[in-house]
Amino acid sequence: xxxxxxxxxxxxxxxxxxxxxxxxxxxxxxxxxxxxxxxxxxxxxxxxxxxxxxxxxxxxxxxxxxxxxxxxxxxxxxxxxxxxxxxxxxxxxxxxxxxxxxxxxxxxxxxxxxxxxxxxxxxxxxxxxxxxxxxxxxxxxxxxxxxxxxxxxxxxxxxxxxxxxxxxxxxxxxxxxxxxxxxxxxxxxxxxxxxxxxxxxxxxxxxxxxxxxxxxxxxxxxxxxxxxxxxxxxxxxxxxxxxxxx
Length: 246
Fold this sequence. Notes:
Blueprint: H1 2-15, H2 21-38, H3 42-49, H4 53-58, E1 70-75, E2 78-83, H5 84-110, H6 113-122, H7 127-156, H8 171-202, H9 221-245
Antiparallel strand pairs: 1-2
Helix pairs in contact: 1-5, 1-9, 2-5, 2-9, 7-8
């Protein structure tokens, strides 16, 4: 049921009007209360929230677009024109992306992968889609092990002087080696995926949901109650956002 709450939260956060700053603050307080109740580490949450940076950088041009009057802002000895309407849209999208990623992180950190996949199945999500996500999740660990082995191999073949704290050469050298490693990982991952799929086929894989997903526990009545209360609070905050903008 946490998956249902996560989906509802993301949908209504993104339906919240742009200038409803009070509602956004309530959404943040709501998630902070959930994080405190679940006893999650804020340091872990903060680090993983950085995944929202690409979305934030992508909407920076909105600051310089809009139909409203532009205001001149001095920056580093020069002046740039900033649209207040565009700035509000930028802040709104940034807040919405951070809130969406936060609630998704809470789901991932408080649930086992099998529970999430089982919930997706209960929501009648196509089994092929669930299998693709499940296999992609498992294959990430294969790629991670390969990356760690390549990093150890690079470190073992690099030397450094007594005054240097790190191995290897200049920054350009490191960038070149890292680029080569990324290309090698891409090629090896494609070859490895073919071998993994062939091994799965030889062991009877038929494209259906992995049986271990079916072993997740059943949902009890208290979880239904908590889900209803959580969704009700989300709806209250969303309705409040509509009322404050009248």
